[in-house]
Design goal:
Two copies of one chain form a homodimer. With 366 residues, the first copy, chain A, is an alpha+beta fold. Chain A has helices at 10-19, 51-59, 73-80, 89-95, 98-108, 121-131, 158-164, 221-234, 268-271, 276-284, 310-314, 344-365; strands at residues 2-6, 25-30, 42-45, 63-66, 115-118, 135-139, 149-152, 170-174, 180-188, 194-196, 200-205, 208-214, 239-248, 251-258, 298-304, 319-323, 333-340. Chain A contains twelve helices and 17 strands. In chain A, strand 9 (180-188) and strand 10 form a beta hairpin.
Chain lengths: 366, 366
Amino acid sequence: MRVGILGGGQLARMMVLAGTPLGLEFTVLDPAEDACAGVIAKQIHAAYDDEEALDRLANNCDLVTFEFENVPAAVAARLARHAPVFPPPQALATAQDRLLEKRLFDQLGIPVARYRAVDDLAALRQAAAELGLPAVLKTRTQGYDGKGQRVLRKEDELEAAWRELAGAPCILEAMIPFQREVSQIAVRDRHGEVRFYPLCENSHRHGILMTTRASPDDPLQGAARQHTRKLLESLHYVGVLALEFFVRDGELLANEFAPRVHNTGHWSIEGAISSQFENHLRAVTGLPLGETDARGPSAMVNLIGELPPSEALLALPGVHLHRYGKAPKPGRKIGHVGIQAPSSAELEARIRRVEAIIAGVGQAAA
Amino acid sequence: MRVGILGGGQLARMMVLAGTPLGLEFTVLDPAEDACAGVIAKQIHAAYDDEEALDRLANNCDLVTFEFENVPAAVAARLARHAPVFPPPQALATAQDRLLEKRLFDQLGIPVARYRAVDDLAALRQAAAELGLPAVLKTRTQGYDGKGQRVLRKEDELEAAWRELAGAPCILEAMIPFQREVSQIAVRDRHGEVRFYPLCENSHRHGILMTTRASPDDPLQGAARQHTRKLLESLHYVGVLALEFFVRDGELLANEFAPRVHNTGHWSIEGAISSQFENHLRAVTGLPLGETDARGPSAMVNLIGELPPSEALLALPGVHLHRYGKAPKPGRKIGHVGIQAPSSAELEARIRRVEAIIAGVGQAAA
């Protein structure tokens, strides 16, 4: 079976690695000359809105899926003329607009932080008065890794923040004093069967994910699954989806969802019986789902900006290195490390050793 | 780092899948238009004795390794002019000649079945008289999967067998009434560190490997490791090597070795902490070796001739499918199934279910 992927970055690359043993053949569409999935898949070099290229991708594939969610509705519609498209375009349209996303959460009874739609400066002032400050102003579209966001602490900051975000349609969200961030990764197949990975606990630095730990005994596991199942079913979803939550005083508040394989699921490559990449492809190609259980204590640490020496990382037990083949650049995700251990204590020790190696490189470069 | 592989079949394909996350980029040299590693690697389409192509491979890679051992010495020498070659060409030369191989086993004190070199019909008669019948006549070179072999039971069969093997240089081996077949897979890095996978127990059908079970508690584990270590060290070996044994009355008798990743090590992809493919690449590229321990009860079943439906196999728990992207053909290895389970009893149950699915396809085709 021939699978097309819109986007040729590391998520596509890891899909190709997981799907090739299933007998799948891949074509990625990506405008970059050095798209990192392009070394192990056919690549169509073209812009994401190049209609001829989109037609070529869909015509040469039995189905099309996505590496990212910021795909204009017109692109998904164009692809769907020629080939089945999974996950459903409606899921992409909802995920790429924070207002539609929050409204869907509301409608499904999934708790979220209080928010207001903000389309002009007057609405921003009104929203700030209603929600109180501090609050977070976020563009409705195109935000990721902390981009397109401003924290507002005082009333006199509103106007400058509104200008910095270029007057784009926004939402204002009450600032949540959360204690933890968790994510639920799940997969739904074409027949509606749903499987859940263990809840993941995530830590960020400068708005970018650094470390994920699989947390199968988390007391919020059950609630996270309930919310995620409602979301999957309402979207008639097919494939892997990640739903991110803040945890405030032991309660989940949904932040956002990603209609795709997700950085907080990379630990599953070695850490789960079937990885998120394999299960996404099983789901979209109509194969039965694989088991999502963790094989033991598992974590993932991102490699951001520059790579530590492979030798140092691979000398550690229980460590698997994933280099994405991307050029180093500050703030850029260019690899990750999967970490497994026979016990949770040993897992924490190994995470610390990996983090020390990464910190050493950061210092050497500073 | 750029790695060249001589051969572009399933072993090369699984190396590419294991090495891409390490940041390696691959070029395979293979004469076949549809070499199955060619869909995920650069391919040079050329004969294995095409000197210009060999030069191009070595010039465009930082090192070269092999997918198979039947490489003329001149080819390895040609490659070595331009790039380091691992494993060492001497190991290939020894493995491809049964007489050199047996003599090396003798020299290292590794027990083998009694044998004689046979260069003409008179020598064959003499050898049969000395060893007694039944015995096995094997060509010194080019034998694999039971090809190039004749079992001799009566004296009047000698001449016909000699003619059938076209008068090629042979050895005659005493027939061993063995109870089991096992293989030891090991990896040695550039600094001489050696790691061993659990001993594997193998079963064959019509001379072709069908099923391998990782057998970490095998009482012959220690002896197999001792023999394999001597072999690796005498060859100054770098990479993965497999040494196959017959077990007769609780004792090991070496059959042959393969200077490469091996079919009896495919279970390690999901079943070991680091797979044989990853460890081969870690070794030849100078990276530290990964752990070779089994992650639990593990086995592998080959898919020969034709593929059962993916749906049936993937509906079973603990099963991973590896399709090689090769055209179906009687007797051809076109895929395998990795099987893991929480207990040995459950592993056996899962193996039986996989074998039943495979048998069902065989019957439907018959």
